[in-house]
């Protein structure tokens, strides 16, 4: 079997990974003692060569699932069935999660052209059906022999994504690999080879047969990667985005309201980059929600564009329309309701600050901003700040200062009023006692009245709140 030469420093890097994880050699011995082959494959090999921290351990073996279970049964701390029909068994050893998969070789039913999973006998066949050469390298265990049949090392050197077989064949076998190309562009900072880009362009429509969940998972990994803008540009340029996120390429036609050459598409990518630069404020960084919201904040613009006299363009209510489109697209991509609510809320609120002018908001307006943002307030701060892409440095600085001031006011109000837990001055039980009513929708009505009052006037004493409630009730009856 041909193997590429590792440079001494890369060999040393791999040996260090093996030495730090003594369970690897142990596991390899278990398999060879049972007359089987075992190798680390895919992501962990690539990441070890790159000197990048990996997240999971994937193995390929000549053993079938039953044999994998038998061989590792008493060694592993836990074992589960990841997908027996695909040959994958999951294991836990200490703090490590491992996935061991039987060698595969694809067989094609010439009539349906649908790949079915067939177990194979050699690592060569298994590696040849992997997505990219950089993901098709292996380290045999326990020998630590490095296997690189498709020039993965050279590709890592050149920071390129190429497929082991022709890209046309590879992408017919599984069109998701086109999404994975864009994902690795973002995650690894690699470039897709020209033949890969042209196959993606020709075959983008094939993505249709891939489940929304698989597409979404790759989009998420792309978005939280180091260079999502590069990955997104590839999706748009190849026409893949038109398949799975058509609202994004739709922004290309949109000139912004100031008639700059920069269109809404370029603006959105810049906002995404600027949001990422501000993201360190969030504990959850890299943060999928802020990245989705920044990318999608203006997708209501194409639908709301109006040309008015004097050559001006308006996009009235693109925030509300955009939030609706976000919900629709994210539902189609099978995102959770929770995530959809978060992103839609940010898109809906992204313009609110522009009513702040140079600080004219009343305390009441500031409280409402905080209340409406709710648990998305920190992200809204980031999105609003990032949504300033003017080249006019003076103007940018003015906006930034104004937002600093708004955040300052929020902090002052928050300290004085426990803004985070903004509640009416009287609770439901007090409302019922004061009004002499039992539980029912009127209590909710009174509660909302008091909450409104609380936002307009700040905290009230119990006596003032009681009086206000009574006159509200009298006027209502
Ligand atoms: P990470 O785990 O960092 O997201 P990874 O490269 O490990 O990256 P996985 O999705 O975990 O990616 O897949 C593990 C390996 O399985 C890949 O490295 C690749 O060799 C192979 N692989 C995964 N999905 C496909 C696919 N759709 N087509 C071909 N090979 C695939
Ligand atoms: Mg992986």
TrEMBL record:
Annotated EC: 2.7.7.19
Official protein name in the record: Poly(A) polymerase
Superkingdom of the organism of origin: Bacteria
Entries under PANTHER family matching the protein: CCA TRNA NUCLEOTIDYLTRANSFERASE 1, MITOCHONDRIAL
Keyword terms of this UniProt record: Magnesium, Metal-binding, Nucleotide-binding, Nucleotidyltransferase, Transferase, tRNA processing
Signal sequence, start to end: none
Cofactor entry: Mg(2+)
Residues covered by the HD domain: 264-422
Pfam families named among the record's database cross-references: HD, PolyA_pol, PolyA_pol_RNAbd
InterPro entries in alphabetical order: Bact_CCA-adding_enz_type3_sf, HD/PDEase_dom, HD_domain, HDIG_dom, NT_sf, PolA_pol_head_dom, PolyA_RNA-bd, tRNA_adenylyltransferase
């Amino acid at each position: 079997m041909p193997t590429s030469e590792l440079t001494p420093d890369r060999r040393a890097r791999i040996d260090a990974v093996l030495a730090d994880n003594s369970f690897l050699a142990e596991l390899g011995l278990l398999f060879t003692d049972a007359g089987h082959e075992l190798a680390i494959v895919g992501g962990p090999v690539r990441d070890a060569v790159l000197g990048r921290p990996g997240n999971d351990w994937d193995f390929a073996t000549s053993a079938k699932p039953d044999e994998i279970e038998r061989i590792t049964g008493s060694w592993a701390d836990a074992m589960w069935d990841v997908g027996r029909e695909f040959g994958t068994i999951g294991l836990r050893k200490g703090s490590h999660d491992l996935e061991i998969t039987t060698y595969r070789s694809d067989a094609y039913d010439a009539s349906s052209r649908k790949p079915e999973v067939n177990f194979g006998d050699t690592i060569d066949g298994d590696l040849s059906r992997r997505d990219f050469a950089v993901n098709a390298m292996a380290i045999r265990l326990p020998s630590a022999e490095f296997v690189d049949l498709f020039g993965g090392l050279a590709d890592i050197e050149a920071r390129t994504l190429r497929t082991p077989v022709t890209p046309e064949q590879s992408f017919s076998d599984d069109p998701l690999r086109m999404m994975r190309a864009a994902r690795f562009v973002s995650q690894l900072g690699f470039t897709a080879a020209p033949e890969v880009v042209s196959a993606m362009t020709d075959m983008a429509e094939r993505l249709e047969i891939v489940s929304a969940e698989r597409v979404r998972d790759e989009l998420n990994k792309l978005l939280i990667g180091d260079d999502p803008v590069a990955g997104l540009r590839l999706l748009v340029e190849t026409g893949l985005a038109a398949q799975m996120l058509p609202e994004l390429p739709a922004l290309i036609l949109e000139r912004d309201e100031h008639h700059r050459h920069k269109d809404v598409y370029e603006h959105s990518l810049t906002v995404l980059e600027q949001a990422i630069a501000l993201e360190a404020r969030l504990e959850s960084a890299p943060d999928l929600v802020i990245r989705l919201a920044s990318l999608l904040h203006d997708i209501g613009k194409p639908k709301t564009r109006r040309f008015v006299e004097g050559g001006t363009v308006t996009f009235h209510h693109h925030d509300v329309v955009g939030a609706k489109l976000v919900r629709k697209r994210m539902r189609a991509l099978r995102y959770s309701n929770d995530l959809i609510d978060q992103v839609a809320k940010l898109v809906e609120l992204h313009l609110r600050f522009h009513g702040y002018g140079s600080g004219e908001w009343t305390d009441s307006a500031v409280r409402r901003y905080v209340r409406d943002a709710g648990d998305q307030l920190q992200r809204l701060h980031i999105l609003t700040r990032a949504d300033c892409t003017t080249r006019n440095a003076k103007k940018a600085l003015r906006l930034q200062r104004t937002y600093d001031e708004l955040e300052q006011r929020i902090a002052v109000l928050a300290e004085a009023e426990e803004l985070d837990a903004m509640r009416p001055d009287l609770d439901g039980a007090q409302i019922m006692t004061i009004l002499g009513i039992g539980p029912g929708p009127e209590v909710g009505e009174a509660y909302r009245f008091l909450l409104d009052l609380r936002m307009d006037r700040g905290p009230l004493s119990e006596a003032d709140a009681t009086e206000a409630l009574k006159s509200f009730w009298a006027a209502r009856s």
